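ugh finaly. both done.
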Amino acid sequence: MDEDGKKFGNEEFLSRWSRLKQQARDEPPAEPQPASPADPKAPPPELPPVDGLTIDSDFRGFLHPKVDENLRRTALKKLFSNPKFNVMDGLDIYIDDYSKPNPLPAAMLAQLRQAQKILEWATETQEETEAKRAAATADPPPVSLPDQAASPTADVGPLPAVAVDMPPVVELQDAGQPPEPPVAAERKS
């Protein structure tokens, strides 16, 4: 509380807030001063020709209320036609026209395997299609097993042991012996 007392001159926060709030209610609100509006009775300012305007020109005169609307628009068009204002944002992904697709060139299309299969399917006749279906549904030829000596797995030694978490094997006990009590599993902590 000592820091607060030093900060506000031994006056508590709520009493200070209340006092300032009361002062704000008692004082009449200050009228905002307009930021020097253009006098509507004044004649329009002397304007340079629109053709001679550059990015460094002063365009404030064209915004006067007595300036013709067409002249104002022409001056603003001249200002915003400058290349400085026509730089598109590279991150704006919605500016492209996606309604016009960019087709693949014929050379690239010919190289695609998928396109080759599609073209192959389109050019084959009905008889060729039926023959391929019949060959696919027929039984595959029997596979002969190679000799073990020629087998690439013949030189492989014993397989390495792999640790697998399996439940313990429960051995059956004689009917005459009482069952052994289960051993509690150790907890890792």
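ok and the 2nd:
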Amino acid sequence: MGFSLLCIVKYDEFQPAGDPAGAPPQGQARPVHRILVVDDETAVRLLMTAVLNGSGYHVDTAEDGAVAWAALQANPYDLLITDHCMPKITGVELVKKLRSARMALPVVMVTGTLPTYELAKNPSLQLAATLEKPFAATALLDTVENVLRATESPREQIDPPPDWRSQPSGGGLQQ
């Protein structure tokens, strides 16, 4: 509970008086990015959603990795923000599934316990950024903006490698 109060205070401080929530800064038109937020803690999930929606992002949420995996298969996203310690499928397991499916989606892991050993053991997971809980709303927004800026165009699913069985064998080539 203390965590969500800290973040709500930080979010209130971030939101300038008189600016409508969700309005981009004057003179700046930003493309609407679609973000999937995954966290089993309802308060944290709602807070991240409010902060990101308030900054003009389109946000979908999932309460665990299994629900997130279904959403990732059904919808295109520009960014995945996931916790690590969750029931059913952890954040690292979710990223492993994502990479196994050859989905080149940038991932930000927001967690209280960073799985350093698992990340070092699996460099192919390629997290775009990590953010440690508790965090300030401005830190979340800065991280999201930096990651999205680094990925200039929306990510698409990478074509799977060709099936080796459909390739001609060395003996079948004619000269």
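summary for the 2nd one i guess: The longest strand covers residues 34-38.
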